[in-house]
Specification:
Blueprint (H helix, E strand, L loop, with lengths): L29 E2 L11 H15 L11 H12 L11 E4 L2 H12 L5 E6 L5 H7 L3 E6 L8 H11 L3 E5 L11 H10 L8 E5 L23 E6 L12 E4 L2 H10 L7 H12 L1 H4 L3 H17 L3 E2 L6 E5 L4 H10 L2 E2 L9 E4 L3 H18 L16
Parallel strand pairs: 1-11, 3-4, 3-5, 5-6, 6-7
Antiparallel strand pairs: 2-8, 7-8, 9-10, 10-12
The chain binds pyridoxal-5'-phosphate.
The site of pyridoxal-5'-phosphate has 14 residues, from helix 3.
Length: 387
């Protein structure tokens, strides 16, 4: 008899690690697949980050500040200028990417016998946090236009009694932002049962929202069970540094301290994030250009007859294709990498530089033109089943 090797948890056997296909720049010079900011830090910002990391390097023999007090203060100040008000350092928590922040939330507030709930289509990492923290996962559904049916959402929360509701706003992969009403309904529903639940509004793309679209940060003073997460990976152009954070009641931050690994945020990461925050206006300086490019992309795609979801993010979901994989492949063959994600028939393109978007438009027309009359073309009003 031979022992199973490696002795992996039963439910993890055969599962592929999460991740978008990564192609080299030679294979796909135009990379519009993981919602990165196409504009890197300025030479000044990069030099300041390097100086800060250099200063931290001389004391790398010591563990970093476990409570990262200076960073929490700087993040609180940033949030108070970005939709929040009255946010104090005790209300802020950070980790290596908002993915880690949300995993920590499920480690602290999920677990066996508890439910984490979202509304599909939603961020594909959420069920993984649930699986890894032994939390039961449940996904309700969004409406046809990807908004939330508030009555149905309230009923579902009251019925399932989740310990954690996870919702991106703007949503990935659809770009849909939640109005204040929706957040309020969810927060009230999640405090209507005795065990109570947290409502986590994942604002990874918050800085890209259109004028007039609110941030859930504004509702923090009203709902004790509301948690708003943000990241430096998208608008901040700092995906490589791995810094994400949240704002919530101080009791939520305190509880996370129980499950976080000791010194989880390295001295290098803390120094990098602090230096980046000093350059916030500059790092965020291209956000308005990207928002304009996003709106232009939506208009152009609609003009070409595609179906396009309204977007408050730095990506656009469009379709629908009878064979979306063939369209995705056609674009790759023309050097443009986008993402095959979302409900069947749809594709998602991240907003790049003006030049990259021109390349995308040409490659798309070329691909779809080539396939006209074949199965690759757009479907005609056929409603597909949502994943
Ligand atoms: C990109 C993204 C994040 C950010 O992840 P990081 O770990 O902070 O890089 C979080 N939520 C959603 C929905 C995202 O698309």
């Amino acid at each position: 008899m031979s022992a199973a090797f490696p002795p992996l948890r039963e439910e993890l056997r055969g599962i592929e690690p999460y991740g978008a296909p990564q192609l080299s720049l030679e294979q796909a010079p135009v990379q519009l697949n993981v919602n990165e900011n196409p504009y890197g830090p300025s030479p000044e910002a990069a030099a300041d980050i390097a100086r800060a990391v250099g200063a931290a390097a001389v004391s790398l023999n010591r563990y970093p500040d476990r409570e990262f007090v200076e960073l929490r203060s700087a993040l609180a100040a940033y949030l108070n200028g970005s939709g929040g008000s009255g946010i104090t350092p005790e209300m802020v928590w950070a980790a290596n990417g908002s993915n880690e922040v949300m995993l920590q939330l499920l480690q602290a507030f999920g677990g066996p016998g508890r439910v984490a709930l979202s509304f599909a289509p939603t961020y594909s990492m959420y069920p993984e946090y649930a699986r890894d923290s032994l939390t039961e996962w449940y996904a309700g559904h969004r409406a046809e236009d990807f908004s939330l049916d508030l009555d149905a959402a309230r009923r579902l929360v009251e019925e399932r009694r989740p310990a954690v509701v996870l919702l991106p706003s703007p949503n990935n992969p659809t770009g849909t932002a939640l109005p204040h009403d929706a957040v309020t309904v969810l927060c009230e529903a999640a405090s209507s049962y005795e065990s109570g639940g947290l409502v986590v509004v994942d604002e990874a793309y918050g800085e890209f929202r259109r004028a007039g679209t609110p941030s859930a940060l504004e509702l923090l003073p009203r709902h004790r069970n509301l948690v708003v997460t943000r990241t430096m990976s998208k608008a901040f152009a700092l995906a490589g540094a791995r810094v994400g954070y949240l704002a919530a009641d101080p009791a939520v931050c305190d509880a996370i301290r129980v499950v976080r690994l000791p010194y989880h945020l390295s001295a290098v990461t803390q120094a990098t994030a602090l230096a980046a925050l000093r350059h916030a206006p500059e790092l965020l300086g291209r956000v308005d250009d990207l928002r304009a490019e996003r709106d232009a992309t939506v208009t152009w795609l609609r003009g070409q007859g595609f179906e396009v979801a309204d977007s408050d993010a730095n990506f656009v979901l469009f379709g629908r294709f009878a064979d979306r994989h063939a369209v995705w492949q056609g674009l790759v063959d023309r050097g443009v990498l986008i993402r095959e994600t979302g409900p069947e028939g749809w594709l998602r393109v991240s907003i790049g530089t003006a030049g990259e978007m021109t390349a995308f438009r040409h490659a798309l027309l070329d691909t779809v033109g080539q396939a006209a009359g074949q199965t690759v073309g757009q479907t005609t009003g056929k409603t597909e089943e949502r994943a």
